[in-house]
Amino acid sequence: MTEAPKQRPPPAGFDRLPEWTGPATRLIHGARRADRNAGAVVPPLYTSTTYRFPPEFSPAEPHEPPYLYAREGHPTAEPPTEIIRQLEGGEAARLFGSGMGALAATFQSLLRPGDEVVAFADIYGGTRSLLSELGGASGIRVKWVYPEAARFPHEAVGEATRLVFLESPTNPLLSVHDLGAWASEADSVGALLVVDNTFATPLNQRPLALGADLVVHSATKYLGGHSDLMAGAVIGPQRLLDRIDAHRALGSVLDPWSAYLLNRSLKTLALRVARQNENARAIAHALRVHRSVARVYYPGWNSAEEETIAARQMTGRGGMVSFDLRGGAEAVRRFLHRLRFVEVASSLGGVESLVSVPRETSHRRLDAAERARLGIGDGLVRLSVGIEEAADLIRDLNEALEPHSGDRAGPPVPGPVE
Length: 418
Ligand SMILES: *Cc1c(COP(=O)(O)O)cnc(C)c1O
Fold this sequence. Notes:
Elements: H1 23-29, H2 78-88, E1 92-96, H3 99-110, E2 116-120, H4 125-138, E3 141-145, H5 153-156, E4 161-167, H6 179-188, E5 192-196, E6 214-218, E7 232-236, H7 238-241, H8 256-266, H9 269-288, E8 293-297, H10 304-313, E9 320-325, H11 328-338, E10 343-344, E11 354-356, H12 368-374, E12 380-384, H13 390-401
Parallel strand pairs: 2-3, 2-4, 4-5, 5-6, 10-11
Antiparallel strand pairs: 1-7, 6-7, 8-9, 9-12, 11-12
């Protein structure tokens, strides 16, 4: 589906695949090791929290056994860690108990009192709260970049900036930002660029290859893909990973059961994402001509400039589509009640299609003025497209929008810039 990322050698024990091995093959064969697991094709689940070591072993010695205590590392987490590392094309990776666990460890480990962080204002609500709290408690200064300023990295980043944090596509308006431009601006002042790649997935976009220093994921979303596990990941150079909670003292670790499930989920990631890309595109086009829909948000559709950036840095546009209903909050309420397959729930990236209303879910903690500044209106709906039949989803949406006029074309609304 996509080109193979530039690879670095795997950690000891894992077979090295040829450089040309593509992502879909890496998902299946990327964590093979000849010396382990009695030849089992599926890596087993080790539930043990503790591991035997030789009586003469002293932790002060340089030759530590591979495992001591599961919080510090366990064998079940190794295959998914290795697969995610390869997909993003990083030198090292570490898994966490959730996306927020990964983000909290990254910020807490890399930032010091007085450091300036430049962060986009339209990021995941939890990340925004985390950065605000760090600002209060740890003396970190956060400079928020609002959508109107997001095209001007040079104005946002200054000599005092230590870290730049962004998401692209953003949540929920799916704006696309020039990762290369932000990377070189961060670089010019010696700051790190950290990109949350949850929405795009490494199959559609690889920030490290575009100049980012670290990639973070909520693996609870697409990487897990079945809405049944929580996990987070950080991928980047070894020298940075060594600084991010290397001793797992912050405690957000992926437990063996979730690691096992994540490993299983990753095998179908390429299939799921390809289908979600396709379904989302079909749905975005269908919604664009629906007369109850005022505007459709889809990566690259916000402006001609964003389309150029998306075409350059993404190989697929992902499975998220947002749209504004002309009838505002009332129309949203009626729409949600009429849906048949698409379920009303927060979160995203699973095999099932889900809708949520950002005003009431991800952005409920913001006041009305702040939501307006971010472009989040009362009629906004966010759709995470699943792997069902596109035609069935389109029919479900059309019927829920306006039961008797769904197939009639409405006035033109902003859409692809061709
Ligand atoms: C869900 C999400 C997070 C937080 O991840 P959890 O796994 O819920 O802790 C962070 N960033 C983005 C973009 C998300 O969608």
